Structures are given as structure tokens and as C-alpha cells.
Amino acid sequence: MTLYFITGNPGKLKEVQAIVPEVEGIELDLPEIQSLDSMQIIKEKLEVATKDREGEFFVEDTSLYFECLNGLPGPLIKWFLDSLGNSGIYELVSKYENNKCVAKTVIGYSDGTDLHFFVGELKGKIVSPSGTGFGWDPIFMPEGYDKTLDLFFLEEKNKISMRNDALMKLKKHLQN
Question: What does the pLDDT read at residue 9?
């Protein structure tokens, strides 16, 4: 059976297929509820996606949690980016002494019957925008590195990323 990754983001699809090549991307217009709980967002999406379709599907939510904002924006990062952009997010965080954050990817997988979650995390900090890249990669510097995610080669990024961590857990589940 085909494993479908539900996304409209070509950057995410490219990263996922570099790790799990057999995945096929599928773009579905799914509602995105507003919640600080990534698992609830994913559960709602998968319920809609599997209602009228057969197959194995997964969807992911990648969130960014700022220590200085008590965990915000979390899953609301997309709207922070839309409103403030990377420069605005950096300016907001730089007003605080603490620029530490955690990037978290939550993958929800459904085989049509059961729902499973897989979580990956990457600690880092918010820095001045370094260039271009998708999402907030230009302002996220992983802990232990001296460059932002947008400056990593795809293979290098996939070795350390929160998405890779969650995908490897999904792969292990699928192999069992």
C-alpha cells in the first residue's frame, strides 16, 4: 500500500523523500484548527483525510517554542511568520535575554484504523536572519553549531533535524 505524506509544502516533501524515498506527496485542502496542541491539530487533519480515502497517510506539524515566551508560538509559528516574518520574529525574541528555543516535529500516522504519533526535537536559538530558506530556517541555529538551518546542505540538515528524528521513529514503526 502507498504511504502518502499530506503536505502543500514542497520543501517539507523534499526533506521527507530524502529520508523516506518511497513516500508520495499528496496535497489535500484540510482544515487547520487553531490549537497549542500539535497532536490535536494532526488528529483533526487525519480524521478528515481518511474519512473518504483509503490508504496510509501521515501529516506533520513542525513547531517552534521560544523559552522567552513560555513556549509560544508553538504550532502557531506559521502565523507568526506570516505576520512578522523572520526579521520580526528575531526582533521580538532579541528583546529578551533568553533566545533559546526548541523545534519540534510531530508526525501523525494513520493506517485507516489506528493513529500513532512520533515526535522529534532539536534545541537551538533564534539569531539574526542569515539568508534564505523555507520557513524559519534562516533564524534557527541548532545547539552546538555556528550556522542556521538554511545554510546546511539537505543531507547534513536531515542528519540532525527534528523532522528526521520523528521520521526515523515512523520508519521503525512501519518496519515492525
Answer: 87
Single-letter amino acid, residue 134: F
pTM attached to this predicted model: 0.91
**Separation between Cα atoms, residue 122 and residue 154, nearest integer Å:** 16
| Rounded Cα distance, 45 and 41, in Å | 6
d(CA 3, CA 20): 10
Instruction: Report the mean per-residue pLDDT for the chain.
Output: 93
Give the domain 3-175 fold: Maf protein (3.90.950)
For the chain, the domains span: 3-175
Q: What is the 3-state secondary structure (H, E, C) of the chain?
A: CCEEEECCCHHHHHHHHHHCCCCEEECCCCCCCCCCCHHHHHHHHHHHHHHCCCCEEEEEEEEEEEHHHCCCEECCHHHHHHHHHHHHHHHHHHCCCCCEEEEEEEEEEECCCCEEEEEEEEEEEECCCCCCCCCCHHHEEECCCCCCHHHCCHHHHHHHCHHHHHHHHHHHHHHC
Q: What's the pLDDT tens digit per position in 32-60?
A: 888 999 999 999 999 988 887 888 999 99
Instruction: Name the residue with cell 520574529.
Output: 89
